[in-house]
């Protein structure tokens, strides 16, 4: 089983699981009867009325509608919060020590139970803000999936590989890669040992490629290098119950259903999970003298409504040539 | 007594109570002595510096200035709140059961005492957010009026007629009509039996007609069909005291004065209450295949500062022809 | 030989001719040595500095660079002009009579020699304006290709099929389909009999899908239904000379080279020719009463710099249900 | 016969000739049969797709459709041009000498035959530019009307009154008043002696009230003081023929019909002619020291697409108090 | 010792302490070795990626980097808060009584210990909001400085002079002057007796000069009249320890270092403290009739992201001529 | 005599000739009597109503007003044109051969008589377009000056130094430097031998520093490195007449006066000539692999009204390190 991907940031992708050719309706979204008797479902990633460049949605053709589940109930796992007043503010610069991963032999911990919130600002209800979480885990998620009702997850694995099964297909993410799973997309995480990483969550805006200004039409993260999974489904009854977990207003809730939610046979649209390998970042920098500001290493940005001001940027410090003449070697002091 | 209205959404209207012809000053707003010795007062509905399309204000010519009242004191009636953390979040879809209206014989309840907040987000101090309230009442407001210092009320009567007396004149609103009474406008409500309805409140933005894009210059709610009251005043001393109630930062406050606040003899401006009959909505929809998103039924929208993203939309599902070919009859599943 | 297409309006597409797997460089655009010794060439469709939604360019990997040709010389064929003062203005409504197609037995005429300008406004040098042309032809273009240095061609076949060979691959366009070939893209046209159609040319802006406003995330021309050719090349020496024709400032020029310009083995980018079948247009219209303005049938729009004002719109009148109650049957009179 | 007006710049007005009450259809624009058997006609003043603040159109309900006329033919009267290269440029400051008005006894001249172009820039076909004309006349227009297909006329009478009959009603304009008659609106001019004035014509933009910035919600020309005619019609057959004159691409054309075009019984909309009395201008200026730039006397502005840059401004120097301390009395020297 | 200033709001200033000529590197910001062995440090006043008009930063060349201090610890002085729910809301109009200044003989109080928060809205973490503080003091700050990590201070002295020493130089501010010290700039305050004043703090936006609209290119506060200090440094060891105080998330924190932070020998940039004398305000107002809205007296504005809506305006009522005819003398009543 | 400059792109500069201290009025622009009896004159570089970032004007205090001259007359020198249809279009890439400079001994030629237009687009009357000129000269301008009424000159000396005397002061520009002299600024050119260079002229927009996007707050041409002359005047009667030459609508005109126009004793404002040394350009480029588009070398840009699309860019190819790995050495092929 080899994982395949389609390329292109923000493309209008189309994908069918090859086991069901023709599963995607032709020329319309809502036929009276879909091929194979599937259910058509739209997953919206933006207000319906957004202009084209920010209008995001996908159409999923699935075996059973996603609404077929029992009511959600509060769910006590992990250590998530969005109450930023819990801890007193501290103006000192902080570095986080490496978070310890429990041994699987001592305590099984999966991606959900291993979530910890580090810090944040704003709140999901007001559709403005961000949070930083870590995850530590040693076990795969078993008959359960997560989705985020509050915002988008940008996931940065630090140790160990993550195999994501999503409603859009499967995606393997290794250290030095990142992936983004957006609001409302169900996913389950398989791991292969002790695994750790960071999550940057944003509320109210999606990640975009930054406008490049004078850099021109190519450079930094090129849109071609973003990879999107291909349709994959399982038609699986789960007698013991499948648990759908929702992060909603900063808290977890769980609902039971008796089938796998990864039953999407075909889909099309521009609202999908995606991944990116950081080695493909085309680094731009000073080639005569002086340093550039670190914004020059921006991979993805979630814009605020003030021009030029981001809600959050994801920035890397990639390997590169340093060739500035007569320039202080470390970057400048900065406040 | 027949109620009259002027038409035109957002027009610069002019109106005089016919009992006082010439009450409106000609060619200026602030004459040294106004006709009939009235007091000129500007009611601002936006920052002074807003560009024309969002700049809102009206000039009221009244018998006594509206500032002539005793200090405001906290006022314990109704069940309003804007503390959204009072109730735990719940990700399940909710439908509200019909709210029970008390019998007038058991307990007199007017529009103010019968207010209940259902839910909301954001807060009025930050000028960003919304709330949903219900009102249930069986009695008219007697020698008291309300105004909202926090935002605008879009009022949807569900059962029973509402006769609004406002500083701008009188307005009768029946089920299948809606009305909007904006920040700072005083009004009193007469009812004619058991009465119930919804209120959508927005902070920091006024309702607008949506831009129509390809729909063109006509369609959905046409601006011509919005009706505005004509000037009406009473010059009435209220020996026992008239109570002016203010909703301020989500709470009620009351001040006493000894005259009716509905003493505006003439006014002009583009900041007024208005009503609309939902039957006049020109419905647009798919006429070949597939469903359109429900945004196509938007009557009024309160814009956020993100293009295409509303703070709140008021959307209806009007009677219409459904003629799409080869299309699933109920609208699509949607998340 | 079956023609294949990729779908998605404005996508970042990638394509390799299957005869040369791996022809597309991985992870960069300009390797020191490209696979198969190809030449990398960027074709820009916008200023380098445009923001993402309007930034257009593609990378072509070809056997010989496109600059390998002799100088351009004036070329007298067809009947193109952009001197709008040649004909006196006429305020009457005009309908064009069908243009006669010469018999192939009498006079061979290909796509270039059969071009006639009907009307226009503005001029290509100022990057603002449009022109309408017709083409009538009865023969395929032989060892010659055309490209437009002035703007984009939206081509509407009226009679006869057109097989386009472009630098991006092959595209068959039949009546009831349209295609767009943008500034700088070389193409050659094969026909299969008497052929006629219209061309809408725009200078200074590309065609876009209109923003939909309240119509929502789906409707009118859906982005998924636009088709883009897949890479196809020929490595062909042309002893007798291959003629590259350029439309430049409204006139034709020709240059000779000794190989086919359709030597692009692989390409990627978001600046490509594309086609669309008009049957896939999801028609939206009035479903209660009254007519909507014809802008509701807009397929593609080329925007001016005034919000809501197009340089040119391409609008169709598709088959649809007409269900408005109590409404005058033909559309309204309109000035 | 007393002329009446409605007030409010850019309002959605409604008007019926009182001889035909109920002529305006209720709740829709296009009934199957209009009241009194009238014809519904939309007159568009902007692209259908403009956003609300710039979307302009009116609905006219008339006895016969306006398209019932014979073809237009070139028409040689007046001295209009838009060929700005006819005269050599001259960088010196110019003042125009008063234009002589011929005596009616010598030569009858009406508003159309007395038109002379002074200067201009840009051109109507490109929807960008302006022209300045004068008119001198001594006779009323008899059984003929004019409309401008190129842009809007802002008319400034200098000597003599002008009585305009338009499709929207009648409007009397005297010196110290101005009026605006926009693209496509038919009008006829009655004069009462020797009459002269200026016309500022703009192509591609309508006049607007300027945004006021810190001046606030009131001041300069107040929207309330703009007056719009009320509906008036004549149902008049013209045996000898009625001449409709069109200014099209800077030239005049004429078409014959056998009835008066002023047959609009009722109308509604926000695209209308209007007038304004310059005495109502609320003058703002320096009240401590120094002079303000003359832009502070702007009555109406036609915006270009560069923020803050007008296509044309109409500016007056009204009577006002000059109270600046320690300031050079005439305004500053300026280049 | 005479204080000197440079002029020009938002200029790219350059300044060297005259004791160290050539301290500013030529042609670059980050030489390998700075003149005099200074340390280059960038102080950012905006996101790196802001467009030019809002991009703010300065380069400081100093004896020791500003990061050389011990960790920050909570610091209990003054009476600052940003918890706006501490006090119940009150819809009545409030005037603050004059705040009493303690006698120096009874209790020494400097600028920091004499800070009191009056009111506010929003919060610094969300980069949106404002606060109003008062300061009362009778002693100079001794071996301690303050900087605001939350936003900008606009300081209005009411009684007594303030001598500011800042990283950019010295600035004397007297009653009838105002000064602005922006986020992150260290300053110390010397006073000369009992001193009192107001502070307007804004989070998330800097103060700007308002766009003037029709007022034109000159008027209100002219950019030329804003004064910026010139570079001044002290190379002073502080054996007993120098205390750097930071206002962070509405609370104070303090860190110790053993040298004066005012060790900046030269600097350049457009992010600086500045002052303005209110007498230089060029007052504009009505010169015919009626009053203008008070926005016409705006000195500085901090913009929100809604066009025309300010986060906070600083407005004055300067001496001026009142010359309106036939107008009520006090300004209009206003709600 | 050493030339001095002030620094800072677009600053609000102030400057007095040191021979007349206090020549600049304090706290106002238009005193009743200026210091030294000078005349105040405003030179506007933009519409009065432009928003702050594009609002340009300077105040000049001079011995005699600049309007004191005789009328302009056509002036036959140089070879300027803006009739782009004079030469047939040519789609081939062109390089211009070096233009020959006549020997001074054979023919005296100054900056004005040595002007030749190469090419262009658009036109000054429409405030949109550009032209490219060369100048060749061997003599200084004697008792004559030039100003451009059509647009701005960006002057690039190729051989020989240019000493500009302007109304704002003196400026020496050598090869590897550029200078910009904007619309309406009078200047005279001294040369020191055979001199040649290019001129880029833009109509309707001024040159700006490009927004840098991810490059951040520093880089490319830094604003600090732009130099502006200091005030310098001569109070010189010219008995034989001083010739003021104006370029107006692409042609030259001349007027006589009897004094030197360089009589500005002091000035302040943000509309000035300026120069820049290209060595100070902080070069940014690829430091890992691939090439960046040449927009990354933009020094100055004149913006069109389409976001990201320039009317004209001034771009250089400065010395820099080329360090990209595995990348084709010359830049990519490009169309």
TrEMBL record, chains A, B, C, D, E, F:
Belongs to the homogentisate dioxygenase family. GO terms for cellular component: cytoplasm. It holds the Pfam family HgmA_N. Its cofactor is Fe cation. It is an enzyme of class 1 (oxidoreductase). Its EC number is 1.13.11.5. Residues 280-335 form the Homogentisate 1,2-dioxygenase C-terminal domain. GO terms for biological process: L-phenylalanine catabolic process; tyrosine metabolic process. Pathway: Amino-acid degradation; L-phenylalanine degradation; acetoacetate and fumarate from L-phenylalanine: step 4/6. The active site is at 291 (proton acceptor). It comes from the Eukaryota. Keywords: Dioxygenase, Iron, Metal-binding, Oxidoreductase. This is Homogentisate 1,2-dioxygenase. InterPro entries: HgmA_C (IPR046451), HgmA_N (IPR046452), Homogentis_dOase (IPR005708), RmlC-like_jellyroll (IPR014710), RmlC_Cupin_sf (IPR011051). Residues 4-278 form the Homogentisate 1,2-dioxygenase N-terminal domain. One of its GO terms (molecular function) is metal ion binding. Fe cation binds at residue 334.
């Amino acid at each position: 089983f080899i994982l395949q991907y389609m390329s292109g940031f923000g493309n209008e992708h189309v994908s069918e699981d090859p086991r069901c050719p023709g599963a995607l309706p032709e020329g319309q979204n809502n036929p009276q009867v879909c091929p194979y008797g599937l259910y058509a479902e739209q997953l919206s990633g933006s207000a319906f009325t957004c202009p084209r460049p920010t209008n995001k949605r996908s159409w999923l053709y699935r075996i059973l509608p996603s609404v077929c589940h029992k009511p959600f109930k509060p769910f006590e796992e992990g250590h998530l919060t969005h109450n930023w007043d819990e801890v007193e503010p501290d103006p000192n610069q902080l570095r986080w020590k490496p978070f310890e991963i429990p041994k699987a032999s001592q305590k099984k911990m999966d991606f959900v139970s291993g979530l910890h919130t580090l810090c944040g600002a704003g709140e999901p209800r007001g559709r403005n803000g961000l949070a930083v979480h870590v995850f530590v885990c040693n076990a795969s998620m078993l008959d359960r999936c997560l989705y985020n009702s509050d915002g988008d997850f940008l996931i940065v694995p630090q140790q160990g590989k993550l195999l994501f099964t999503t409603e859009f297909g499967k995606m393997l993410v290794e250290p030095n890669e990142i992936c983004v799973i957006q609001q409302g997309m169900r996913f389950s995480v398989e791991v292969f040992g002790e695994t750790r990483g960071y999550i940057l969550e944003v509320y109210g805006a999606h990640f975009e490629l930054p406008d490049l200004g004078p850099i021109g039409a190519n450079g930094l993260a090129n849109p071609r290098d973003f990879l999107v999974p291909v349709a994959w489904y399982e038609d699986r009854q789960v007698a013991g119950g499948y648990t759908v977990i929702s992060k909603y207003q900063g808290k977890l809730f769980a609902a039971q259903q008796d089938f796998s939610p990864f039953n999407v046979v075909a889909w099309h649209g521009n609202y999908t999970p995606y991944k990116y390998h950081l080695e493909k970042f085309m680094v731009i920098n000073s080639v005569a003298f002086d340093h550039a500001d670190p914004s020059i290493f921006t991979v993805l940005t979630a814009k605020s409504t003030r021009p030029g001001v981001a809600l959050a940027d994801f920035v890397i410090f990639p390997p590169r040539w340093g060739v500035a003449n007569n320039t202080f070697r470390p970057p400048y002091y900065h406040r």
